[in-house]
Every structure is written in structure tokens, then in C-alpha cells.
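A reminder before we start the practical. When you read a complex entry, don't treat the lines as separate problems. The point of joint prediction is that each chain is placed relative to the others, so the output describes one connected object in space. Small molecules and nucleic acid strands, if listed, are placed in the same frame. In the example below there are two entries. Take a minute to note the order of the lines before looking further.
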Amino acid sequence: MPMTITEKILAAHAGRDQVVPGEFIEARVDIALGNDVTAPIAIREFESFGAREVFDRNRLVLVPDHYAPNKDIKSAEQCKIMRDFARRQAITNYFEVGQMGVEHALLPEQGLVLPGDLIIGADSHTCTYGALGAFSTGVGSTDLAAVMITGKIWLRVPESIKIIFDGPLNPWVCGKDLILYTIGQITVDGALYMAMEFDGSTIRGLDIDSRFSICNMAIEAGAKSGIIAPDEITLQYVRERARRDFSIFTSDPEANYCRTLHFWAEEIQPQVALPPLPENSRPVDQIGDIPIDQVVIGSCTNGRISDLRQAAQILKGHKVNPNVRLIIIPATQSIYRQAMKEGLLDIFLEAGAAVSTPTCGPCLGGYMGVLAAGERALATTNRNFIGRMGHLQSEVYLSNPAVAAASAITGKISHPREVVSD
Amino acid sequence: MKRILGKAWKYRDNINTDEIIPAKYLNTSDPKELAQHCMAGIDEDFVRKISSGDLIVAGENFGCGSSREHAPWAIKEAGISCVIAKTFARIFFRNAINIGLPIVECRQAAEEIQPGDTIEVDVDAGKIINHSQGKEYKIAAYPPFMQRLIAAGGLLNYIKASQTSCENKIS
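Here is the predicted structure of the whole assembly.
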């Protein structure tokens, strides 16, 4: 029977020849991930279960990134629970402040997640790694605890929805715009419980960073996972990082999809998602004049080197509007260093931006850029829910890094061409 | 299972986990502390208004957004006995089943229940009873594997039982 890439990966990890959507399987996990918010609960459950050792100390990855560097005493306690546990269990892939980065940028960069893997993470944006051709999904802390004990997870095999993009991209359009556009078309529960499989000539032409942005936001359409079959671009990224073998899976031409959508990239302009849901996406030049107080460029969605390059291209030789705070957060230490080498940080600082050490911080209203009542931010992050970045009466708009950078200069949400030529 | 009977607190579609437990409270993992801020992102007085046993009734995609298990923990510890919704976001769904918070998908009940109605859920008999309106709704049974998880009292209890009985297969 023909299978999708997702079904093939799940079958391989369940020790089966085939699986069909709707059935429950028990699957072997290659990599499990927790952070300073979700791991402490998993550790509590792990210990109250009476477990002594994690299933594999090389396959559990722990990253303090949400409220680290510690934002307050309580966060410090949560980080300490995770750090102490990592030391007790001799976890190989615990990333201390100074080594750590935003988890979903860090794990691929470190070569910890690879094509054909089955990855679970106690963080909803774990779906990011589908960009490498892996099955990767977010779970809660108890699920993580169960994997820490057994190395396995129960899963319902998802139906797959196929999203095809064809044609060339318009200027200043990147992966972020394609996924915001998709969510706008299918709504925030349009892919509920499903695997979103992206394909088409546009996707094949995208760099790996854009692919990460797309799969990262599959959860914002309700999906279980997002996935892009590996190709030469994937392999180029993975080969220099992988320290173990990996498998390439692709969908059979006759595989079953519960729905197939076909979009034309040429019809898509840079997108902005209006609060309070990512589905409220519109072309940036159709939303009118919306003044902003803060711009955040960073996060697991758009804090990678190509995002920073895009922002720098716009910001070079310009100044941040006096009414705006621009906060730029390279997602990992190595992205930070690369940005430094390329002179991007100088461009940011010269423009008047604040540049921070890696953290999820403002994306979830944690710290490093929390909003007051009545304030409005434009962010390259992934959620614009009510109160997401601070006060319940503050607002978050979502965009790509180029739109965010241009808007930081003009002081209102702007198309990049208002600042630089196409 | 504890009897599920209480007053309905009704919410719209797409209630996200930031609304159930805003991120500013995620610097703790203590369920009791989390419970004090249950639903604070949409109604800061929620925990002061509810009585133990009350139910949350909501529309589509309840619990969307972050994977924070703090959300179902906060609801459970606040004394909410069950969440009825048209649909649940998948991570919230897993988390609730895994920690033993009763949740029920029932489109018609979620539509027709009014705020303040007295609702009973009889999981074993597979029905929701709206005492205020004198209506009953059938609940679709969970797949057998999930029934076993629920009967065991959550995922870790299930694993513990499977390990002892040496049958740890899903079928």
C-alpha cells in the first residue's frame, strides 16, 4: 500500500511494514526534548514514578531557553531543577547558558535531529524539525516523562494534508509568508490532528531557514506535525552536522491525503497576521496605517542567520524610529557569532536596536520586551494571541523579518519597499 | 471515577493555553499555585467564581497553542471536573488524558449548553445530562487504547501497570 513520508517514518519506528491513519501505535523515539518550563514537571513525574535512569542519556536534550538566563527567582528554581537533573543523569545534551539557544534553532544546528527521525518535544513548536524530513511533534510534560522512562511514545497515526506551492517568490517574501498565508487559508484548526506535508517547486527552492519557519508554524494550524521531504538542500545542511546515521523517506506518488491544496507563490505578498489569531493574515500593503511601539526579531520561527541578514539588509544605514523599541535576538550562540562576523550586529546597533543573548523571552511575554496595556508590537514570532507578549490589552502582529525591520524604521507596519528598493 | 456534576462556564472557540494559564505564571510547576491563575488570560476572577465540580464548556479547538501541561493541571487543580468542547487542540487533548483530566468532545452539547446550566457527565454510561434544560447527549466512546489509559488513571499509571504485568503493547 502506498504511504506518505509521515506514515513511513512512523511505521519504521513502530517496527511495522505499514501504518494507516487513525490507528494507535507505540513508537521508538530518537530524540526527546524538554525546556526550563516543561522539563521540571516531567522530572517531577519521572521521579514520582520511581524511575532511576533516563532511557538514553544521549537522546534526551534539555535546553533552558524560555526564562533563561533566569528572569526571576522562581524561574531560577525551575532552571535549577533541570540543571540538577541533567547533572545527576549525566545528560550529554544539556545546554547551559552560554551554550544554549532557542531550542528549535539549536537542535538542528547541533546535528541532533536528522532526516527520518521520530522526535518528540515538550514544546509545541517541536514540529519545526519536519523541515529536515523528520516526524516531529510537540507533547506535554507527562508524555515527555513517559519517554524519559521507556524511550517510547503512543501516537495516533495522523491523516496527511498536502500543501503545494508553485512558482517564484515575490520580493521580500520568505517561508514565514507562505505559512502565514496557508494558515489564513485553512484557519487555526484547519489541519487539526494532521500532518502537513509541504511540497512544490517553491518549497524546493527555499533555503533551509525558510523551511524551518514553515514547519515551525504547522502547530498554528492545529497540525500534529509539518514535514518537507529531504532533498539536496536538506542533505547539504545535515551532512556537515550529523554524528549518526539517518534515513531518507519520501511519500509514494499514490499516497493518500485527506486534502490537497495548491497555491501560487506569485500571488503571495509579504504577510502580516493581525491579532488575536495567526489565521488573520493579510498582505502587508492592505492593512492601512498601524503604528507600533515595539518590534521583535527573533524566536524559533525567525531568529536564524538568514532572518538576521534580511533584517540587516533593510536596517543598514537607517535609524530605528524614535517611537519604536527594536529588540533583535539571534536564536543561538553560533548564529550570534556568525552575525558578528558578517557585521550584522554593527548594523543593528548603529540603527539603534537592542541585541540580546538567545532566549524565547518576549515571544511568550516572559521578559526582555514585555508590553504594557495599550502597546502594540510587530514580531517575527509565531503567536499573536491576546496578551501573548504582556498585558491583556496589548497587541501582537506577526510578520517576516524584512517587514519587521522596515516597520521599526517607519514606526508603522510597512512593506520593505517603503524603506529600500526591491 | 469521581462523579462529574456542576455548573457550566461557557467559552468561545480557540481558547488557547495562554488564556488558560498566561506565561507569566509559568515560572512555577506547582499545580496548586497554577490553579490560582486558571483561565486568568480570559477571566482573572475565574477561580474565585467557580465551585468545585464545575465544568468548562467551549467551542472549537479548546487548548490550542503552547504544549504547557500547566494548562490542564491548572484546570484540574482548580476543581473543574470536566471540559466539554466541540473539538480539542491535540496537545491539550493528550495532556488531559495523560494527567487524568476528564474531557469530552460533543458538538451538540457544547452548542446548546448555556452558561450556568447544571451539567452531569456519566462517562461510563456515555452521556451528558443537562439538568437545567432536561436534555441528554450521547458521547462517542474513546478508542479502546485511550479507554485503557483513562481507566488506569493516566499515562504513567498505565505504564506502571503495563510494566508490572509485562504487557506493554498498544492494540
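Discuss with your neighbour: The first strand of chain A starts at residue 24 and ends at 28. What might explain this?
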